[in-house]
Specification:
This protein is an all-alpha fold and about 190 residues long. It has 2 domains: about 5-60 and about 170-185; about 65-165, no CATH class. The protein is about 70% helix and about 0% strand. The chain has helices spanning about 5-55, 65-90, 105-110, 115-125, 135-165, 170-185. Helix 1 runs antiparallel to helix 6, helix 2 packs antiparallel against helix 5 (about 135-165) and helix 3 packs across helix 5 (about 135-165). The radius of gyration is 33 Å and the shape is elongated.
Length: about 190
């Protein structure tokens, strides 16, 4: 079977077009590979920096407790707060005035209340409830104060514990950890 010159040229053009597309695909894949290698190298460099910083620091790491032990310690602290809040709020009178500059702190414990007046109203909700007898009003008032005090104390304790968790890290080490976290969160 013989091909005409035109068929021959057409077949050559198709072959050339395939070759060009394959070369473009190869270049694209090589570019992607180069990009991935750069990301891997960047993460490796950050990990090496952290490792070098850790090795050169004088910080001695104690044995890490099990999660269950940490939970038990927090539970023990929260039990202490529960006991303390019961004693603290046994007075059925009004709680101290709520300062308006601490409203955002109170809002973290009682999200439904947006201002100091809302907190006072929330705390005194049962004080004037005529559908309840005096004993029930005092008991509910005491319980509400106790729960507020317990919630606020627990919130502050846990926030302080976890907020300062990076304090022991040197600045360079901390920045490297944050960069690695950012790189890892951005990967697909």
């Amino acid at each position: 079977m013989e091909y005409s010159e035109q068929e021959y040229l057409q077949a050559m053009d198709q072959a050339e077009n395939r070759r060009i597309r394959q070369e473009e695909t190869i270049r694209s894949l090589q570019h992607q590979l180069k990009h991935e290698k750069q990301q891997v190298a960047s993460v490796k460099q950050l990990a090496d920096q952290i490792h070098m910083e850790k090795d050169s620091s004088m910080v001695m790491f104690a044995p890490q407790p099990m999660d269950s032990n940490v939970c038990e310690d927090f539970s023990s602290l929260l039990d202490d707060i529960r006991t303390w809040s019961t004693k603290f709020s046994c007075d059925t009178g009004r709680m101290s005035d709520f300062k308006s500059d601490n409203t955002s702190n109170y809002h973290q414990v009682v999200p439904l209340c947006n201002d100091a007046a809302g907190i006072v109203s929330f705390m005194d909700q049962y004080r004037n409830d005529q559908s309840l007898d005096e004993k029930s009003r005092k008991q509910l008032d005491k319980m509400r104060k106790r729960h507020f005090v317990r919630g606020r104390a627990s919130f502050v304790m846990i926030e302080r514990c976890f907020q300062s968790s990076d304090i022991w890290l040197r600045t360079a080490y901390l920045e490297a950890v944050h960069r690695i976290e950012r790189v890892l969160s951005e990967t697909d």
